[in-house]
Amino acid sequence: MSRGGGEELKVGRNQYEKMGSDVTMLCGALDNSTSVTWKVNGTDVKAPHRVEGPRLLLTRVNSSHNGLYSCFQNPHGERRDSINLRIGRKCTTATRASPEVDNGVRNQHRIMFLECFIIQ
């Protein structure tokens, strides 16, 4: 996708994480020794974090951490990757599956468990 002026607009990949967890985001396929800077929604990351080479580590994330994180390779500031971070909570629900016929006998006690992710 491109904006006016020929500049390419890169849409980030999605990363879903559980509320309260520690999160690591990796800047593309860069070497561990590569120095990068990170921005969220175009501004410096203000939440408590650590940068270890191409990795951004956030602790005890909550919904305020949602956003588009972009990493830039130093020293020239070339954007290398973008990640759309979504914080939510996992849930599990049970539902009855359609009855199955097993050897001519209808099995109505089959329960299916579904995992879901609720975005805050």
Automatic annotation (TrEMBL):
InterPro entries: Ig-like_dom (IPR007110), Ig-like_dom_sf (IPR036179), Ig-like_fold (IPR013783), Ig_sub (IPR003599), Ig_sub2 (IPR003598). Coiled coil: none annotated. Residues 20-71 form the Ig-like domain. This is Ig-like domain-containing protein. It comes from Knipowitschia caucasica. The lineage of its organism: Eukaryota, Metazoa, Chordata, Craniata, Vertebrata.
